[in-house]
Amino acid sequence: MAISLSLTVNGQPVTAEIEPHTLLVQFLREQRRLTGTHVGCDTAQCGACTVHLNGRAIKSCNTLAVQCDGMNVTTIEGLAANGAMHPMQAAFRDCHGLQCGFCTPGMVMSAVALAHACPGLTEADVRANLDGNLCRCTGYHNIVKAVLQGAEAMQAAEQPAAQPATASAA
Ligand code: FES
Ligand code: FES
Q1: Considering only Cβ atoms within 10 Å of each terminal Cβ, which end of the chain, N or C, has fewer?
Q2: Ligand 1 close to Cβ of residue 51 (< 6 A)
Q3: Cα–ligand 2 centroid distance for 147 (angstroms)
């Protein structure tokens, strides 16, 4: 029996009728055509399916779509703003943090959530916290560089712009 689901996906309100056993990754890929969220293992091991649920990185292959009712889901397609790459996406490009790119959407989504959760990230933080995202190509070195660079760029973008010096009131 189909049940109804209402949630926000990449800032857009969405309602749908789904089977209760529909996984979030199936809903995103098959019903919303958001195919940037990849399926690597289907057993919560590889992180290729990582998306944000209310700002937290989760694996969409072990989350039922119905568990996301009333919540905000962001996928890799929702990161760019006004046609400009998210700073973390730009850092992956600039640091050559990808080869085949299969792991990249999940890696970027995990990295953005980590950078939000841990300002002032260190290399050790990145290596410890991204252990749920596997990459078969890069050897991780450039991914770690990219995450550190992207986190720094995110922090800089969130700083309020410097106020112009005002003339002394005297
Ligand atoms: Fe979800 Fe691998 S497909 S963790
Ligand atoms: Fe190929 Fe990571 S770039 S799996």
Answers
A1: C
A2: no
A3: 15
β-pair type (72-74, 50-53): antiparallel
- CATH topology classification for 3-78: Ubiquitin-like (UB roll) (3.10.20)
Which residues on adjacent β-strands are paired with residue 84?
81
Residues 6+ apart with CB under 8 A from 131: none
Cβ atoms 54, 83 nearer than 8 A: no
Domain boundaries, the chain: 3-78, 87-158
Q: In this structure, which ligand is nearest to the CA of 136?
A: 2
List all residues 6 or more positions away from 95 whose beta carbon is below 8 Å from its beta carbon: 142, 143, 145, 146, 149
Residue 136 CB–ligand 2 contact under 6 Å: yes
pLDDT band of 170, cuts 50, 70, 90 = very low
**What amino acid occupies position 153?**
A
CATH number of 87-158: 1.10.150.120
Q: How do 72-74 and 56-59 pair as beta strands?
A: unpaired
Tell me the pTM.
0.93
Confidence (pLDDT) at 161: 58
Beta carbon of 134 within 6 Å of any ligand 2 atom: no
CB 134 near ligand 1, within 6 Å: no
